[in-house]
Amino acid sequence: MKQILIATKNRGKIAEFKQFFATVNVEVVSLLDLEEPVPDIEETGQTFEENAALKAEEIAQMFNITVLADDSGLIIDALDGRPGIYSARYAGEPTDDKANIRKVLDELVEVPASERTARFICVLAIATPGEETLFYKGYCEGTIRTTEKGENGFGYDPIFIPQGYNQTMAELSPEEKNKISHRKNAISQLEKGIHSR
Ligand SMILES: O=P(O)(O)OP(=O)(O)OP(=O)(O)OC[C@H]1O[C@@H](n2cnc3c(O)ncnc32)[C@H](O)[C@@H]1O
Ligand SMILES: [Mg+2]
Known about the structure:
By secondary structure, the chain is of the alpha/beta class. The chain is built from five helices and six strands, in the order E-H-E-H-E-H-E-E-E-H-H. The protein has one domain: Maf protein, CATH 3.90.950. Helix content is about 30%, strand content about 25%. A hairpin with a 6-residue loop joins strand 4 and strand 5. The relative contact order is 0.15. Magnesium ion binds next to loops. It comes from Oceanobacillus zhaokaii.
């Protein structure tokens, strides 16, 4: 079976990539599967593209193979696009999903329902040593609830209601999320060979 190394330590992402790639018979290997632990890669970029490239290129160089990386996050209009590239560490480090959610909800207390629009973004970077890195981008539009709901998924899923739904992303089954998510939409671009940069 073919394998793809994904430069992530996020268990939520890994579970989703495993589902996507199972349909094309590709086995997903992540940084959590390696015998030698890989140090955390500093995400010093100013854009999702830069951070995705940093992760993909560093691991590709390290193992001299093609590597996929995912840099993603939540963009909230009423917060001028925050948490954005800082989504993982919005409430500080180490990453704490619950604290991140609390911070976002606190910042939005006064914001009325009609102004709680947001979108998830996922930028995938594919790096191969000696070749130009390719990028694929996907979005998922929605709104931010005032309280958490649902147990599935990860990150900001319990407060994000995808457009056209009345449940949060965390109330959807993994299969349902994987049909509409930003990550799914980025993978579709990858499958179609439509790179964004
Ligand atoms: O860098 P890696 O190791 O891949 O893992 P990470 O969790 O640090 O990942 P990012 O740097 O891309 O930060 C993305 C954050 O955005 C949020 N996020 C991304 N995709 C999400 C999704 O599908 N559902 C909910 N939250 C998501 C979540 O809080 C992530 O921690
Ligand atoms: Mg990260």
